[in-house]
Amino acid sequence: MAAPKRGRSASAQSKPGRSLALILIAIVALTGGMFLSGNKTPRLGIDLAGGTSITLKAKADQGSAVNKANMDTAVDIMNRRVNGLGVSEAEVQTQGTDNIIVNIPKGTNSKEAQQQVGTTAKLYFRPVLASEPSGGAAQSPSPSATPGGSSSPQPSTSPSASSSPKEKASSSSTASPTASATSQGRAVTDALKADSTPTPSTSASGSTKPSSTPSATPSASSSAGTAAAKLQAQYAALDCSKPAERAKVGGASKPGEPTVACGQIRKVWYKYVLGPAAVDGTEVKKAQAVFDTQGASGWQVQMTFSNTGAKKFADITGQLAKNQSPQNEFGIVLDGEVVSSPYVQGAITGGQAEISGSFTQQDAQSLANMLSYGALPLSFQEQSVTTVTAALGGEQLHAGLLAGAIGLALVVIYLVAYYRGLSVVAMASLLVSAILTYVIMSLLGPAIGFALNLPAVCGAIVAIGITADSFIVYFERIRDEIREGRSLRPAVERAWPRARRTILVSDFVSFLAAAVLFIVTVGKVQGFAFTLGLTTLLDVVVVFLFTKPLMTLLARRKFFANGHKWSGLDPKSLGAKPPLRRTRRPAGPATGSVDPKEA
Known about the structure:
alpha+beta
C-alpha cells in the first residue's frame, strides 16, 4: 500500500507548474478586466483625491420631531445610500443637534450621491383627478426623480397598467392646453366632487369610492368648497416648466389631502390634480433595478408590496379602472413630484409592480436605492456645499509611501543578507502579491465603492510584514530539515505541511482581527481593516499557488540542490548533521529453534 502513495506524492510534486500557470492566468485575467473597465488606478478617498462636503439642516416634518433618534436614523439611511458596503470613504455624521455633515469623495458616482443624500424619498400612490401639459419643453430631470415612467404588474400578472408618451397624450386630451380658466376650474371642481378624498387613517383599502354620508354639515361643505376653489386657482395658475413654481407644489401637502403636482414625460412637463394618498411608499417591501430583456421597456424598477400594501394597491387600481381618462390613472409621487402616471385597465393584484419608461440605468438604480433603504424621518435643507482639496492628504500620502518604501527596502536588505538566494523567491512573491493587491483595489472601486484612503495605505504597508513572515516561516522549516541531514528536495516537501499549518493559523488570526475591526468601526478605520483583510487573504493565495510551487522547481536546480554557499541553503553554514545510517543488529535465533548447549 505504501508504493501507490509514494507514486501519487511524486506525481503531485512533479507538476508545480500547474499552480504557477493558474496564478498567472488569474493575474492576466484581472489585469485585463482592469484595463477593459477603464479603471487603471484605485479610487482615492476624500483625504487623497478631494471631494465635496455638504451641510444639511434638519427640519421638523409632519409627525416627526428633530431629536436624537430621528437624526441617528437619518444618518444610518444616508450612510447606506452613499456608502454601499461602507468602504467607499463617504462620511456621514451629526454636528450639533440638527445638522448632518456629509463628506463625499470625488468619483464617478459623486454627483449622484450628492443628489441622493438629502432626498427624503417619500413615495405615495395618488389617484389622478385632472392633468394636462404645462409650459414648454422641460429641463433635464434629476437622476433621483426622472418622470416619464410607467407602472405595470409582473408579466405573470393580469390585467396590466402601462404608460407611454403617446398614451399619456391621449389620456390627457380631455384637458386641452388652451382651455380657459373657467373650464379648468369646472374640471377640477367636478373631479374633487367625484373623489371621496379618503385618508390613510379612515380608509383601510385606500380606494377612491365616493362618499355618500348624508350627515355633512353646511360648514363642512363650505370648507370643502373653499379648499376646492383654492386648489382650482392653484392648478390654473401653475406653470410646471418653471423650477420656482415646481418647488412650491407637491412637497408641502399632507398625504390625506388633495394636491397639485408636476411631472415630466419625454421632456414635457405636465401638471396634475391628485387625490389623497391611497398607498404609502412604506408599503413597498423591496425595490430593485432590472433591465427588461424581453420587451422594449428598458430599465425598470420592480417593487414588491407588503401584504397590507398589496391589498390597498389592488383596491385603488380596481376603483380607478372604472373611471374615464384621466381619472383612470394613478400618480406615483416621489418627494412631491410625479415620476409616473400610468392608466389602469383592471385591478393589479399579486403585490408586485414595475415602474418603467424613460429610465436610464442610473435613474432606475437611484430610485430603487432610495425606495429600498426607506424614507428619511426628517426633511433636510442644504445649508452649504464646500469643495475639499487633497493638498494635505497628498502630503501625508507622500510621507506614507516614503515610509513604506523605506520599510520595504529594509525587508529586502534583510532577506538578501540572511537568506541570499532564497531572497529571490521572497521578492518574487512580494511582487506577485503587490500586483494582485493593486489590480483588485482598482476593480473594487467601481464594483463596491472601495476608496483608498490614508488608513488603507497603512494597512497595505502592514501587509508587507505579514506576507514576508509567511516566507520566513517556510524557509526556516526547510532549513530545519536540512540541518537534520536531508537533501533539499525531500526537505522542501517535508517542511511544507508544518509551515502550512503555521501560516494558516497566523493568517486566520490576522483576518479575524481585521474582520472584527471592520464590523465594529466606521469611516476611515474601516478602510484600514478592509485592506488588511484583503492582503491577508492574498497572502494565503500567493504562498499556496506561487511560493511553494516556485520553491519546488528551484529545488531541482543544481545551484540550490547542491547547497551553493549563496543559495541560502548551504548545509555546512547551517550546521547540518551527517546523514543518519542504521546499524545492523545480529539476527537472533529463529522462532522455535533449539539452543545447541541445551541439546
